[in-house]
Amino acid sequence: MRSFLKDxxxxxxxxxxxxxxxxxxxxxxxxxxxxxxGDLFLGISVPEQRKIAKIxxxxxxxxxxxxxxxxxxxxxxxxxxxxxxxxxxxxxxEKKEIANFYLANARFINNWDLVDLSAPHIMGDYLLDKDxxxxxxxxxxxxxxxxxxxxxxxFAFIRNNQFEDTFRIAKEFLHDxxxxxxxxxxxxxxxxxxxxxxxxxxxxxxxxxxxxxxxLRNAVERFDEQKRRLYLKKESRTSIRRLxxxxxxx
Length: 250
Known about the structure:
The chain is mainly alpha-helical. About 65% of the residues lie in helices and about 0% in strands.
């Protein structure tokens, strides 16, 4: 069977935009000591990458892995876009194979957009009706991106009105120092709140005093101004007590 890997690489190289690549390199923090250090960009838009992924959606896993192991960001993103398409069309056995492949190659899913785009659609969807213990193993990982996969996978649960694991993982990350974890947790709590604000507030009332400000600010972003300001006064014990005794019922 012919491999289309070289065709994909050539198609992506033709779409390269050096000026956009410079902008993206700065946006995704690729400098020395930054979270995206060593990441290389071609400067290709996501819609263009989706078109490439659609054309080559039958790429075998061995070639997907070669793309995924590249230092070029767009190669890795296209690999994940293909993987998501294959997962969506797969049967039970194929979905299990793809979920295992995803987890085995998680070290290559190493920037926030790669995680956010893929984790809910593959790991989250796969675990909807299964034990979620492996997510809590990822929570304990020393790898930033594996930890982000853990919380972002719960987006699939949230979309199905299953909130408990989001809260459990959020609790584990209350004292995490990295802003990319804090932002992801706040985002997922906000998504819970879109569907059930009372449950989100029950969690916030209990833990807002411990939350990093970045996490809390993201979590309460959609609240009305008065309520948002009240939560953001997390340093004040009086404010926290007011929250617990307030008329914001749960």
